[in-house]
Structures are given as structure tokens and as C-alpha cells.
Amino acid sequence: MDKQDWIADDLKYVWHPFTQMKQYEGDEKPICIVKGEGIYIEDIEGNRYMDSVSSWWVNSLGHAQPRLAKALYEQACAIEQVIFAGFTHKPAISLAKKLITLVNNRLKHVFYSDNGSTAIEVALKMAYQYWQLKGKASKKKFIAFENAYHGDTLGAVSVGGIDMYHKVYRPLLFDIIREKSPYCYRCPCGKEKEHCRLECLQGVEEILKARHDEIAAVIIEPLIQAAGGMIMYKAEYLTKLRELCDAYQVLLIDDEVAMGFYRTGKLYAYEHAGIVPDIVCSAKALTAGFLPLAVTLCTDELYYAFYDEDKDGLKTFYHGHSFTANPLACAVANENLAILQEMNMEEYLKPKILAFKRGLEKFRDYPHVGDIRQWGMVSAVEIVKDKRTKECFAYEEQIGKKIYSAGLRRGVLLRPMWNCMYFMPPYVITEEEIDSLLRLAYDSMREVLG
To answer: Is domain 69-342 annotated with CATH 3.90.950.10?
Structure first.
């Protein structure tokens, strides 16, 4: 089959995610990728693209990493899948032990699932059932935030806060308590960054004070609301939120699906705040993009609320998936963690983080750049119509899509979200490649905006 045949079959049989398929009636077509290496992916015609978004934030060590491929092959030759109820296997045991050791045993137990959404479903159900088992049946509500994204399953959508993705499903969802987003550039309290005293947390504090008896947990993306437009906030916000949850006996669920495994420069983003959540969800970079796998970590306090002879069957956590703790995925994750430790990843990333910080300065004076923000290996440029008023370009103007197309013509995969152009590349990117990436992104932006 040639390129035209592959694409014709794609458009005939495949429905792509987050995609209006009618857009492919014209000249635009999906790009058929055949291989990858390092930070590059290559299409069926031999064109290479710099993968600045880690293929939806999952690829951390570069494409086709040979040690991960070898670990996958060796595990496939041994056992590819086994039921995880009543059975176990070495890769799952080893991975759980490594994860708990990496968090210094402050979280104690690992529950496996398949992806970020399912990790969140586990956390929500775990938190809800915990309070039922503790005799506090009124604690059924969750506090979540505007601009939040926790996945696409219905529980995860319920605690999400992006209307573009979620509003059509609203009748299917459970009710939550939604609070303002800690969006520093567009502060909900009208403050400037240098004068911030975490006033945006006051609403959460008032709700907890008045309604803690009915609240099971607060769920939050640590430091960065990724799908909301790489919205970033201070670590002190998390520190104070932990204090409030402790004061009012409410669980803190930390959604590290996107930011776990060194995206912010540390293993988990919550470490910047000097806290430990009650529940931590992670996926994506756990296997460096090789296979779907997710974990939900919890404390002893939660685990032992379910631990009993359970003669009436009410204390068992009735949750699981066919591919729970898949041996192939666990084997790859084990090797991934070994590589991260051998590379001393926190130190390895420091010069690259500085390279992004330096390179982003070229965007600062551009008339349509409203904000530049960075946490570790995640950085973002918010594009505005009017720099003084922070007015956004209208959705209909499709600024992000136009920059995406301009980037592809230059050999770089950018994929902005609305008016936010962001960078979250594989960690193996070099400082020279960072400079090249930012130059190509800048040129793509100028092509669209003039």
C-alpha cells in the first residue's frame, strides 16, 4: 500500500480523538508515522518532526529507547498477561516496591490500573468508600477546580472543569463543588504575581470550614493545570491546601498523571511543596510511552480502612481491569525507573531547564505574547490579541491550529491548546535542540501573527 491507500483507509475506518473528522475533507490529512528515534518521529514519506509534546506527554526518554524495547521483548517471551486477582508476578511486585521506595515510604500501597483516567477513577472511589467505612457516610462530595482536566471517563469528567471537553456530558455526571483555578496570569482575585498572598485559596478554605462534614476529598493537578492551557501556580498553594485538608479532615488527591516522573524537575510535582498527599495518581511517563499503565498510591490510613475479614463483603475494594498490572507494562516501567535513577534525572535536567528559561526570553517582547511560564521541563507561551488587556483571540480564529500547521512545515510538532503554545519534550533533548525548537516555534508564531 502507498501513502494514499493508508490515509484513505484511515479516513474510512478510524475515528481519531479530539478531532473533527470533517476537517479532512479538504487538503489536510492525518500524518502517517512509521518510526521514531530520540526526540524525532518520521512519517511515511520520510519527513521528520521534532516531538516537542512527547506524543501527548508520555514519551520521556525518547522514541524507540533500546533498553525499554529489550525489557519488553524479554518479558513477552516469558509471560505477557496474567489475571491479577489471586495471582501476582515479579514485575508488578518489583515496580510497586520501587515506587514506594522512591517516595521514601510515605505512601505505602500501589493499586494498578490502565491509564490516567482509570487511576483517577480508582482514587475517587477509594476516597468515597474510605469515608463510608470510617462511619462518616455524609462525606460524599469532592472539591475540584475550574480549568481542571483529569481524564475522559465519567468520574474523571465529573471532576474536570473545561467546558469545551465536558459540558455536553454534564447530565451524566455527579455533582461536585467547583472552585476558582489558581491561574496566576489571569488571577481570579485581580492580583499581580508579585503581590499574591494566595487569596484564591480563600474560597476553598471557606467551603471546607462550612461543609467539611460532607466533603470526601479535594482533587488537584499539582503546580500545572496541563490541558487547561499549562496554567501554573505557586508551590505554596499546595502547601497551604494540604494544611487546610488536614485541619478539616478531608483527603487530598494529587493528579500527577501528566507531571509525574520529573516533568517539573522532581520525581513528583508535589515534592516542590514539601507535602505528601493522601492519594497520588500517575501514568503517562511511567512507562516512557511504551505501554499504557497507571498507578494509584495511597497511605496506610486508607489501605487499612479496607483491611478486614470482610464477612459481609462490604470492605473489599471492588475495582479492577482486565489488564491490571500487565506484566509487559510493569517490566517496561521497571526498566524506565532504573534508567531515570542511573541518569540521576533531577540533576540531568537542570541545564536543560535553564536552556528553556534562556530561550524563552526571545518571546517576551513579542506584541502578542501575554505570558511566559515554566515549571521544570514544562514551559508555555500564552498568546493574546491585546497584551495590555489580555484579550484572547477568538476560538474561530484558530490561532493554535494555524501555528500547528506552520510548525509542521518547519519539521516540528507543536500542537498548541487554543492560544497556548507549550513545550514538553522528551528529556533526552539536547540544549542545541532546545534552541532549535524555540527558534522554529517563534518563527511559526510570527508566520501566523505577523
So the answer is: no
CA nearest 356: which of 326, 383, 322, 379?
A: 379
Beta bridge partners of 279: 253, 298
Distance CA 349, CA 334 (A): 20
> Which one-letter amino acid corresponds to residue 358?
R
Indicate the angle between helix axes 90-102 and 327-342, nearest 10 degrees: 40
Query: What pLDDT was estimated at residue 312?
Result: 81
Does residue 105 carry a pLDDT above 90? no
240 Cβ neighbours under 8 A, 6+ residues apart: 198, 201
Domain with CATH 3.40.640.10 in the chain: 69-342
What CATH superfamily classification does 31-64+344-449 receive?
Answer: Aspartate Aminotransferase, domain 1 (3.90.1150.10)
Q: How far is CA 332 from CA 85, 236, 325, 340, 377, in A?
A: 21, 34, 12, 12, 23
CB 368 within 8 A of CB 383: yes
C-alpha grid cell, residue 165 = 471537553
Which ranges of 146-262 does DSSP label H, i.e. alpha helix? 154-158, 163-166, 202-211, 235-247
At position 144, the amino acid (one-letter code) is: A
Joined together, the cell numbers standing for residue 414 give 507543536
Residue intervals in the chain for CATH 3.90.1150.10: 31-64+344-449
**What pLDDT digit, counting tens, does each position of 115-149 carry?**
999 999 999 999 999 999 999 999 999 999 999 99
C-alpha 185/C-alpha 381 separation (Å) is 11
Cell numbers 490516567 correspond to: 116
| DSSP codes of every residue in 108-146 | -EEEEESSHHHHHHHHHHHHHHHHHHTT-TT--EEEEET
376 Rama sector, left if φ>0, alpha if ψ -120 to 50, beta otherwise: left
99 vs 61: CA distance, rounded Å = 18
Q: Where are the beta strands (DSSP E) in 197-348?
A: 215-220, 224-225, 231-232, 251-255, 279-282, 294-298
pTM (two decimals): 0.97
List pLDDT tens digits, range 345-398: 999 999 999 999 999 999 999 999 999 999 999 999 999 999 999 999 999 999
Length of the chain equals: 450
What's the grid cell of residue 44?
A: 511515511
338 contacts: CB under 8 Å, gap ≥ 6: none
| Beta-carbon-side half-sphere exposure of residue 37 (alpha carbons within 13 Å) | 4
How high is the pLDDT of residue 232?
A: 97
